[in-house]
Amino acid sequence: MNKLLIVFTLVSFLTSCADINKEQQLKRIQQEQKRLDQLAEQIKDKRMDEVSSLKVNTMQTELKIKQHLHLDTINLDLAQQLDAYKLMRKSINPITKQLRQLRTGIKEEKTVLKLLAQDVELGRGERQRFDEFIKFEHNKVDQLAALTKEYLRAKAKLFEDYYALYPPVNALANQLQEKAARQR
């Protein structure tokens, strides 16, 4: 009888430890899910939905300049401004690609964390490796956070450059086009 009581107490103790560990694991998964929600919120920007029109505008302006700017001397300020404009235009595609990758990565990671939480909750799979799995997913969320930070920096630079460069370069392109139309 004494041995049965000891075994019962030992089993009860072990299962209670497993429940405590399970709660900690679920809490860590929930923290990662919250981080993903924050990352998803950070990358939301209505301006990026209209980035294709921004790209078309910059390409049309650059084409007008190529067709109508014929200089026999080089104006260094103008050349630097046009070079910066061209770099800004070329940065649009990589930034939109980064945004797509981030959206996909966040969505996939949310799914993985949801499934991991279900496995922990129901005790499915290799329970002894749950902490390892959670750490692995934490590292993936860290990578997404780093990519988000880089994306936000690049996006801010793109819009800063666009708002600084597009109006004067577009005005120059329109002047050149009007001048060419008058000379015909």
- Over all CA atoms, what is the radius of gyration? 28 Å
Spatial shape: rod-shaped
Helix content: over 70%
The domain count comes to 1
Order of helices and strands: HHHHHH
Instruction: Note the beta-strand portion.
Output: under 5%
| Broad structural category | mainly alpha
DSSP strand count:
0
Question: What report would you give on this structure?
Answer:
- There is one protein chain.
- Helix 1 packs parallel to helix 6 (130-183), helix 3 (51-68) runs antiparallel to helix 4 and helix 5 packs antiparallel against helix 6 (130-183).
- Residues 11-17 have low confidence and may be disordered.
- This protein has helices spanning 2-42, 46-49, 51-68, 76-90, 92-122, 130-183.
- The chain contains six helices and no strands.
- It has one domain.
- It has 184 residues and is an all-alpha fold.
State the gist of this model.
With 184 residues, the protein is an all-alpha fold. It has one domain (28-183).
Index terms:
mainly alpha, 184 residues, 6 helices, single chain, 89% helix
Secondary-structure map:
Elements: H1 2-42, H2 46-49, H3 51-68, H4 76-90, H5 92-122, H6 130-183
